[in-house]
Amino acid sequence: MAKAEQHYVLDRPEFDKPVKLLIVVAPYYKDIADNLVAGAKAEIEAAGGTWDLVEVPGALEVPTAIAMADRLSNFDGYVALGCVIRGETTHYETVCNDSSRAIQMMGLQGLCIGNGILTVENRKQAEVRADTKDQNKGGGAAAAALHLVALSRKWAGASKGIGFKSISDTIKLAGDTKDTPTA
What we know:
The protein has helices spanning 30-46, 61-72, 91-108, 123-130, 137-155, 167-174; strands spanning 20-25, 50-55, 77-85, 113-120. It is of the alpha/beta class. Strands 2-1-3-4 form a four-stranded parallel sheet, with helices on both faces. Helix 1 (30-46) packs parallel to helix 4 and helix 1 (30-46) crosses helix 5. It is globular. The mean pLDDT is 90.
């Protein structure tokens, strides 16, 4: 059982500039979603960050809302929350796989997303995982997003020093900007 397992938890990241995360939650199971959100909010606030919250109808809509927010807003990262409990049909596999795959694809494109969409066999498993005093998966998802934001900021100015530089980059490096074309 998971309760007997010991897991290593990274230290909370620290930030020089404020962090703002968007929590996107599918409150299909409202009590479970509320616990996930409470854990996420507490973790973000403990790191000195702020958050906004939006609700979507289901777990399949969570990635779409994150993609829209990334295009249309200015969040540093995202926390995906919801719960999918196995039922009698194959819809469970579709929702679990497709929502997870979409979130992973956005992460691979550089978005800082903590995935806290629970995929469980029964309500009891969901309750334990969502409980802020137990497994606190909402807080864990927020922590994951915060760690990714910290990495993103750490590497934002890094240059690999390979490849070709444009003529305008070369002029800027030399300190002569009077003839540099402007965009």
